[in-house]
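cron nightly-structures :: item 1 of 1
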Amino acid sequence: MPSIFAYQSSEIDWCESNFQYSEVIAEFYNTFSNVTFLIFGPLMMFLMHPYAQKRSRYIYGISGLFMLVGLFSMYFHMTLSFLGQLLDEIAILWLLGSCYSIWMPRCYFPAFLEGNRPQFIRLVFITTMVSTFLSFLRPAVNAYALNSIALHILYIVVQEYKKNTNKELRHLIEVSVVLWALALASWLSDRLLCNFWQRIHFFYLHSIWHVLISFTFPYCIVTLALVDASYEMPGETLKIRYWPRDTWPVGLPYIEVQRDTKKC
């Protein structure tokens, strides 16, 4: 039995040709496309600082986990090792669990919790711990299970879209869903239609998934934070801004907490 640290010890091998450009990097493009995680993570920490000070500093942890996903994904695609696969998938699992804990609206909590967030966080923590151990049993299906969790988050976001009349938030949700759908289509196409892409010598769909999903991350966390704020911060005025400029057609969204400038 090969070591879990050994190159190509994972059952999963993506469509990109192995060791085509380097003797030490198994999947060149799939490895280096993760650099966007390491750029957007710190940038969102900086942009969301005012929100973090006002609502929750846990967003720094979310951004940290996001960067960890990028690092572990780089290690996995560089080595295609079983350890790299598990580290990548477990980091994603804990990132999703953390998002649930912080931003899940109380109205979606199980009824027996009666809207108690500390108890909900404990429940999510226990579920995530159990899922972490279960991920060792059938590693080949972990990625599909993680995308199923993302579908539940999508369901909640769609429900909030139907409730909300805020045009800016609705636009943010629309862009988030489109980006996520494009990213998922790239992931599935690379996984299920590899023979076709190899015939036309186009091996880059999984690396495109990395770029698209890393760009989806800022949109998703701002969407979830605004949905949460509609329940938990009713007295605050929050504004969606885009970096580097609001007027640019493409940018990273963040939340600006506007101060009340009224004078007595």
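cron nightly-structures :: done
The beta strands are 237-243, 252-258.
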